[in-house]
Amino acid sequence: MTLAQPQIKSLIARELKDLIEIRRDLHAHPELNYQEHRTSDVVQRQLSRLNIPFKANIAQTGVVAYLAATTDHGNTLPSVALRADMDALPITEQTGKPYASCNPGVMHACGHDGHTTILLGAARILAALPHRPRPVTFIFQPAEEGGAGGERMCNEGALDGAKSKGSLGNPVGEIFGLHGWPTFPVEHVATRVGPLLASVDDVEITVKGVQSHGAYPHQGYDPITATAHIIAAVQSIASRNVSPLDSVVVTCGEIKAGTANNIIPESCWTHWTVRTLKDSTRKLAKERFIQIATHTAQALGCTAEVTYRESYPVTTNDAHVVAQFFAVAKEVLGESRVSEVQHPTMGGEDFSYYGKKVPACFFFLGLKPSEAGHFPTLHQPDFDFNDDAISTGVEMFVRLATRPV
Fold first, then answer.
1. Measured on CA atoms in the order 151, 153, 158, 163, is the torsion positive or negative?
2. What is the pLDDT of residue 3?
3. For residues 77 and 135, is the Cβ–Cβ distance under 8 A?
4. pLDDT tens across 80-108, in order?
5. Alpha-carbon distances, residue 281 vs 74, 113, 154, 253, 298 (angstroms)
6. Is the pTM here over 0.90, yes or no?
7. What is the pLDDT, as a whole number, of residue 4?
8. Is 288 helix (H, G, I), strand (E, B) or coil?
9. What's the CA gap between 198 and 203, in Å, rounded?
10. Closest listed residue to residue 338, CA positions, set 177, 184, 185, 190
11. Following CA atoms 235, 237, 240, 245 in sequence, which dihedral angle do they give, to the nearest 10 degrees?
12. Rounded CA gap, 21 and 15, in Å?
């Protein structure tokens, strides 16, 4: 048997006030990647109160907890994992909220305070249930924002169960994760089969030329001019190397060069992000990027040193697990509040590493208030996770973990 939906909603309603207080406390005390010591302590204290076994200091500040099933048969099954990220961003908050960041230059501008709170709420409800048909693993992960904490959690055994130092109980058989999404309304969820978020590659180019006086450019080789040509030329990867029906983004976000307006400098440095949705496109984009950068610089009398780091993989959702998600979501919320994401987003997520190991489903949780004409989006200084979304996130996690075997 499973607990009736109204009973789960009643349990969540009982906990909601305290969960909102936890969320706002986390929001007021944001921590950058691999520095989430206070956040990790909050998680550990909450798990201890619930008598849920856990292991801490996984991937430095991560926590993995485990709840057994309530039947012998259930405890022969693989665990279902639920994941939340904990880190904040190097952004100065401008919300003006009474619980705004106490840490100058750091804020929860991506909603990870909400994600962590939702997973703590799910742990509370699941610990209180008289029937859990399968074991549940809770993964509180550091360093999603560029630190690849998900990769480290996997490498340190978070999915491997008791055979690993980084986990407990049975190995994970499937995993669910969520992200608050400001373009979807509250009490709405959405996902899709296959690629949902893009791979993320980090690239640096240092173009070196020959320094000269700005009045005598013919006496040197200009790395700024060469860099300008590279910036324009690499856009041909999208327009001429990749199918118009495929997706690739090549963006230069930083340029540093020079010391004065009358000096052609010796070098020019740029910093890029390259994003794709297919492994084959990712490989092609890397090859063409390096070729275009090096050959363009050479044609203009310079050299280009390219450092190309492949970072997060494509976040890909498993068809079977997504089907389970849609069945649960429609039962919990009704069909009108459940959507299929039509097109992947070119944002990235290190939840992708879990999906490389076990069948996975990552989904979007609506944050936009129904009456809002405008709602701040992710990574903006006036963004704040909407507390009205907590109950929906908790219920989705609980129902996914307790669906019939």
1. positive
2. 53
3. yes
4. 999 999 999 999 999 999 999 999 999 99
5. 42, 34, 25, 21, 25
6. yes
7. 61
8. helix
9. 16
10. 190
11. -110
12. 10
Of 150, 117, 122, give the one whose Cα is nearest residue 138: 122
CA 377 to CA 34: how far, in whole Å? 24
E strand segments, 294-357:
303-310, 315-317, 338-340
Cα four-point dihedral sign 292, 226, 204, 231: negative
List the structure tokens of 359: 């069948």
* 379/384 Cα distance (integer angstroms): 10
Rounded to whole angstroms, how far apart are CA atoms 317 and 359?
A: 7
The token pair that represents 343 in the structure block: 């097109």
| Phi, psi of 343, deg, nearest 5 | -135, 140
Reference 202, options 286, 273, 135; nearest CA is: 273
* Exposure on the CB side of residue 284, measured as CA atoms within 13 A: 17
Give the β-pairing of 194-197 and 315-317. Answer: antiparallel
Query: Angle of helix 5-28 relative to helix 390-402, nearest 10 degrees?
Result: 130
- Alpha carbon distance 82, 151 (integer Å): 16
